[in-house]
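SAMPLE LOG
Freezer: B-3
Tube label: C17
Construct: single chain, 400 aa
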Amino acid sequence: MKRLWRPALLWLVCLMYTVYQGGKTSIMLLMMVSILMIYWILCSWIGLRKMRGTRSLSMEGGLGGQMQAGDQVHVKLNIEHRGWAPHPFIIVREILKRHSGGSWAFEESVIPTFRSGAQISFQTPPLERGRYSFAETECSAEDIFGLIKHTRTFDFKGEFYVLPRTVFIPYWHLTDRNSRFAGPENAQSLSRRETTQINGVREYVYGDRLSRIHWNATAKTGSWKSKEFEHESLPKTVLVLDASQGSYLDPADFELAVSTVASLLDYSARERMSIGMCTLGSNFKGFLPMNNAADRQRMVQHLVDIKADGQGNLKDRLAGKKELFAPGTFFVLISSRTDKEILETLQWAKSNQMSPYHIFIGEASQDGRISTSLRQQGLRGIVVPSLQELPVSMRGGRYD
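STRUCTURE (predicted):
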């Protein structure tokens, strides 16, 4: 009703013109403006008050409603307007917000039909890892002359999360009993021998012995299959994600580090490993090594909104969490650094009778002195330049 002063002023001018000028022309003009005034009053009275709406989301790519980075969301808005709609069109604006502060906006105009409303469908761009929520939906409309604008907001709840990207890892050399990356003092305890009990069938991996080929499954499926055997228990593993400020010059490297951790969690689920995780962000978060799906799901959920905002020395922050790091544990540090602080952290793990292992994120380190120091101390690791090359790196390698 606030903007009625414009048509009211126009009607008052026509009234004064009729009073002081007279004549048929002024009377006809006053009648026309009076009819339009009734229309403007109806627009202000009805407006968008009788509008209702619902939102539905359709997520592609993820099973059970879980999405991975790179997937898109299909959004469908159903708008209903009960009764007569005085507006020629309605502009609908949607805003999708990410937990890190980014947002994406969508705007479209629709023509409402009598008693059936309108339907809008759109698709978000490929989304990155994080938690997302829709802001209030804004609907705005104007009269046919553009003098009066009405706006109404609807709070349709719509929240979802996007998991980190992952890649299938068929083999991790660190779990091999013949792996040279486990220290000699722990070689026997870190062995993971296969039993003679067949556990199932898996895809053929280059290098599998001829005796492992499952000929019946290969003949039925038309693709190479290998036998999967039961394994003896494997010592506990803890993935340590360096989420410190300044550890990653490129944000893409931190995303690669998070995806590496998520991919290793998937690997541990298939291999039935007891695995834990800790992240060194602004707040230390630790998960004890467990071998169940619920705990792994909590770890993956924690990775959804983790940020590289930690502060402080890595070794000092880890030293007070001895319950996570029992002797004989695989200590797997994921970081984009090979500096002195990383070396001290790995040495600390070794001095506490753990098997330290460094996954370097990014291109091969140019600091040959630090890489040589790591090897001289009996510390080993691999380089992961990209997510696509992660399965190859997991098969074994050293710092370049």
